[in-house]
Amino acid sequence: MVNRKGLVCMAGLLAKEKHSVILQGVSGMLRGIAGVLLVVLGACIYQAIQPPPPKLCGSPEGPPITSTRIKLRDGRHLAYREEGVPKERANYKIISTHGFGGSKKYIIPVSKELIEELGIYFVAFDRAGYGESDPNPRRSVKSEAFDIQELADQLELGSKFYIIGVSMGTYSVWSTLKYIPHRLTGAALIVPVINYWWPSFPSHLSREAYKLQLVQDQWTLRVAHYTPLLLYWWMTQNWFPASAVAARHPEILSPRDKEIAMKLMAARRPDQDEAQQQGDFESCHRDMMVAFGTWEFDPMDLNNPFPNNEASVHIWQGYEDRLVPTILQRYVAERLPWIKYHEVPNAGHLLHHVDGMGNNIIRSLLLREETST
Question: What is the pTM of this model?
Fold first, then answer.
């Protein structure tokens, strides 16, 4: 027979076993709840960082196609606009690349008199994802050069052409200098955006220039460079201020730029708002990811594409530019002495809109005239 002491011991063991079973059940339930919460949290994070699909031009949900377009070899379409004299009688053929948030509507301001006098033909195009050009999920610095080359070939511009880029659009110009220099008769980079992570920049100089940017832009560029998959979330979240450039914050402009910007806004046409109509991600966000990502080459390693002085390359920089640091632009000019460097006092990032500056840039590029700034 089991004595009383044994019964008490057995009862204690049974109670402990029951308690253990209950704890295991609770623990399992908590693990299950935690797993569900992690799945939900992961889904929320994925949804937050995942950009919506672009609204392709010509699709049922997208804007209409109103521009002339070419079809590239990879199946994408590139929209373009021609200006100036007809290309058949042009003495100079220039391809123009727009900046951040821009489109083919922009061509450097040049007087009609100079266009007729010199016989200049311009063609501007929507870079991938902008305006009415199809997005390019594989967009890169390198792909820009070959989009430009295909445009020139399909429009039958001949074996060589000039290229002018403005602001963010100048990485397209760097790309042509690297990959298709044999197709160029000259190039101009106007207030070219600097990638702070080009390997040749001295770290102290790059750091100094980087800190000249507004803090919110410093963070935006970090995200674009180091964690591009989070850029869409960063640009659309409401917790912290994102890009001051994208928001067109007044602080990014010099006093002269503010005056010019007021005039430009007053003259702005409704059709100029089509630049981001297919979606901010495939236009502006991807532009930032490419411009401030890791490039396939370092521009500081480029060789002079015109060793016999048969043509020229120019950089135009405003001394008061608050978007593009002068100290890094000067370093580029020192490292690449074959580039003619023009630093304009009392001008900022919108220097090409200063009265007469467009004519100066064109004369310097096409006629190689020394112009006073």
Answer: 0.86
